[in-house]
Amino acid sequence: MSEFKKTILCIGAGYVGGPTMAMIAAKCPNYKVHVVDLNEERIAAWQSDDLPIYEPGLLDTVKVARGRNLFFSTNVDAGIAEADIIFVSVNTPTKMFGRGAGKAADLQYWEKTARQIKRCATKDIIVVEKSTLPVRTAEAMERILREENDDFKVEVLSNPEFLAEGTAIRDLENPDRVLIGGRETPAGAQAIQDLVDVYEHWVDSDKILTTNTWSSELSKLVANAFLAQRVSSINTISALCEKTEANVKEVARAIGTDSRIGSRFLYASVGFGGSCFQKDILNLVYLCEHFGLPEVAAYWEQVVEVNNWQRTRFVNNMITSMFNTVVDKKIAIFGFAFKADTGDTRESPAFYAVKQLLEERANVVICDPQAIPNAQIDLAGVKGNISYEADPYKAAEGAAAIAIFTEWSDFKELDYQKIYDVMSHPAFMFDGRNIVDHQALYEIGFNVYPIGMSKKVHFTK
Ligand SMILES: NC(=O)c1ccc[n+]([C@@H]2O[C@H](COP(=O)([O-])OP(=O)(O)OC[C@H]3O[C@@H](n4cnc5c(N)ncnc54)[C@H](O)[C@@H]3O)[C@@H](O)[C@H]2O)c1
Q1: What strands, in cross-sheet order, belong to the sheet with 363-367?
Q2: Out of 3.30.450.20, 3.30.1540.10, 1.10.3630.10, 3.40.50.720, which CATH number does the structure's domain 6-203 have?
Q3: Residue 175 DSSP label
Q4: 122: burial class by Cβ within 10 Å (0-12, 13-18, 19+)?
Q5: Ligand 1 atom closest to Cα of 131?
Q6: Is 276 annotated in the active site?
Q7: 143, 306, 336, 353: which sits with the fewest CB atoms below 10 Å from its CB?
Q8: CB contact at 8 A, 196 and 188
């Protein structure tokens, strides 16, 4: 007899599967939690103190449970055979081929997982969708698992993950809400209750929302679309501020104090990135097109288009300001991660900016406290003069400009006089995150270009 009440399996040990399972294992010592992945290197890293992803507080959480009730392995089949509850947390990127290319979700990893579960399961199971999926995907999972199957019963639940990279542990420990969707049948209700029992180990009952499956699946896409829409909205206003001498920080503060609007996600920037916003909005757009709602699709697609426009606008502004040429100029890119406190570079605005700068034949040096290994992978096939330097003081040596792409607090605390002294002059600072003290840098001698605020330059017209 196992010492554990139930065995939870998670397929996919990525940015979501790893931290989520570490939290469940830490909070539920009476459940065995087994995390599996096809990627051997990733699993080996989860078993070490050099985890495959950087996330504040993650290592401590993993250490609470690893070896006690938290296990990592590549043995997916054996894991399935033993499990009572199977979380599926595999990647669901944007499909890049065939029908729906560039918009629809690529469900190949998802479907392969469904078939593998069917092949290896030995007892009644609950399958939990953790990955972000198009509405009604649970139906496909159920069909695959239930077709010609008299061996075991299965209920499919949707339990989307709302954690944000960089604050994953905080978000998991103290979530705004946990959302669980399931069938409106007695078996569906029982499966929902079984999952509620897991979360109730540490989340207040009133924060655990239960809905039908389709509302839960759709809510995740809609949450990301609404958040991204706020970023794109304030970014459009940043351009207007630059033309009118209004200050986008002041505007954001003024409207953000309206409790109906709220202050979060109103920071103007070079644009949003990350693996989720663009992919999930495009997924929503594809669903709207599929259901014959072209106006709704066009409305949400514009959120992504504005993001692309803001990224390009930032780099165009760099080139124009530097006398319309960056050929052979050294440009220090401060930050390559898509946001602070993560090494994740998926869809990072910095990637697109670097490509654009290389096309203009600039000489680019990339500086980031966590993301250099990922930057090297992302830029491996890109032609041009690229180098990597973790020390910002060395990265700035001889540079004509610094461009800030990630809001790492490290970049706020640098000695910018020391940096200015080793740069070539005139020295430019393009602050794509509005994080440095613009007046102080201007007084040192920099020509400063923030987002959505008047530039501070030493040139007379
Ligand atoms: N990253 C985020 O911030 C975030 C937040 C909420 C939701 N999500 C969603 O969660 C899902 C996972 O995202 P992620 O960022 O963790 O992705 P990821 O790419 O970091 O991890 C996915 C993992 O699944 C593994 N995998 C794929 N197919 C497999 C199979 N058949 N068997 C075993 N392992 C397999 C891959 O090797 C990879 O390690 C996506 O649907 C995403 O949209 C992500």
Answers
A1: 385-388, 363-367, 330-334, 401-404, 428-431, 447-449
A2: 3.40.50.720
A3: -
A4: exposed
A5: 41
A6: yes
A7: 143
A8: no
At 103, which amino acid appears? K
Amino acid at residue number 3: E
What the block records as the tokens of 63 is 């250490």
Residue showing tokens 């990647």: 91
Structure tokens at 259: 């409790």
Please give the distance, rounded to the nearest whole angstrom, from the Cα atom of residue 266 to the centre of ligand 1. 28
Q: How is the chain split into domains, by residue range? A: 6-203, 247-461
Cα distance between residue 204 and residue 201, in whole Å: 9
pLDDT of residue 3: 87
Which residues, in sequence order, are CB contacts of 454 under 8 Å at separation 6+? Answer: 242, 245, 247
Angle in degrees, 0-180, between the axes of helices 213-244 and 294-321, rounded to the nearest 10: 40
Query: What is the b/e burial string over 124-136, where b = at least 16 CB atoms within 10 angstroms of the residue's CB?
Result: ebbbbbbbbbbbe
Residue to mutate (ligand 1; options 11, 16, 129, 161; most atoms within 8 A of CB)? 16
Burial class of residue 161, CB neighbours in 10 A (0-12, 13-18, 19+): buried
Is the pTM value of this prediction over 0.90?
yes
Token pair in block for residue 453: 């605020």
Cα 244 to Cα 391: distance, rounded to the nearest angstrom: 37
Same fold, 6-203 and 247-461: yes
Cβ 56 vs Cβ 169: under 8 Å: yes
Amino acid 2: pLDDT: 74
Q: What is the radius of gyration, based on Cα positions, of the chain? A: 24
Report the CATH number of the 247-461 domain: 3.40.50.720
Averaged pLDDT in 10-residue chunks for the chain of 461 residues: 90 97 98 98 97 96 98 98 97 92 92 94 96 90 89 95 96 98 97 98 98 96 97 97 96 97 95 95 96 97 98 98 97 98 96 97 98 97 96 98 97 98 98 98 98 93 60
User: How much is the pLDDT for 27?
Assistant: 98
Using DSSP's 3-state secondary structure scheme, residue 319 falls into helix
Atom 20 of ligand 1 has which residue's CA nearest to it? 14
Which residue has 């640098």 as its token pair? 414
Q: Is the CB of 342 under 6 A from ligand 1?
A: no
The DSSP-derived string for 264-312 is TT----S---SSSHHHHHHHHHHHHHHTT-HHHHHHHHHHHHHHHHHHH
The residue count of the chain comes to 461
